Amino acid sequence: QYLVAHELQKTYGTNFKEAIKYLLKGHLYFQAIVEVNLNSGEVALLEEYVKPELLAYVKQLQQQLSDDETVFIAHKERLCEVRVLAQQKRDGLFNGDEVGDIDEADLLSDTTSMRSSRYTGSSQGTGKTFRSAKNRRKHERKLLSLKPGNPFEDIALIDALHNEVMKLVNQQEQVRDTCKALMELQMDEPASSLQKQYAQMLTLLQDSFDTIWTEEMASVHTMQYKPSPTTDYTQLQNEQRYALLAPQKRFKPQIDIIDWMCKILA
């Protein structure tokens, strides 16, 4: 939308600075630099306006990447802790297991019932359907709470970790274009710092996939809901648990790494 606003201002307006401002608001710094360089009478805007805005954004972007890394690591470490505690519980190392299992079974039953109801009763009243959907979303948010002690905390953590991965991976083009803009203004040092930080972040994400999305998670989906004397009910319960996750979040993220790095900075 900022690019469209820029084109409209450039075509129908008379204030070149205002047209550039739209590019900066959209963090389209490299394009802003190109536009200014094409208008020799406005080159002063680079030092007066574009450069300060770009440096401020880089500082903000690097801080956000650092914060996201902290959150990702905290969620991953907590997931490992929760899985250890769950295994200890299954091994009978904690007392009061029976009460916890009943509560969890009830929650699973409610969730399974609500999920199946999504595809039934389509002829019922719109108001009732809306209330049902609203209640279902409220219940699912409760189940996917990151609050420590939530019976489904591991599922909530996997959901949050998947969201973090996709959020960070989708910034490849933005980081690349920001580094290009910095180099265009002869600011190789901050460009190199940003590229190095983001590259380390992507490596951290990819190296964590096997820890987060385990083989058990992948194999559990091959089960069929046909109880028999040999049914592994623990595995069946896991299948119900993982059903709380959107299908694409039950497996390692399929990420597309583009050619985002500026080789001169590598």
TrEMBL record:
GO cellular component, one term: cytosol
Stretch list, region Disordered: 114-139
An MF annotation (GO) of this entry: tRNA binding
Alphabetized InterPro entries for the sequence: Elp1, HB_ELP1
GO terms under biological process: tRNA wobble base 5-methoxycarbonylmethyl-2-thiouridinylation
ELP1 three-helical bundle domain sequence ranges: 45-212
Composition bias type Polar residues, residue spans: 114-129
Stated name of the protein: Putative elongator complex protein 1
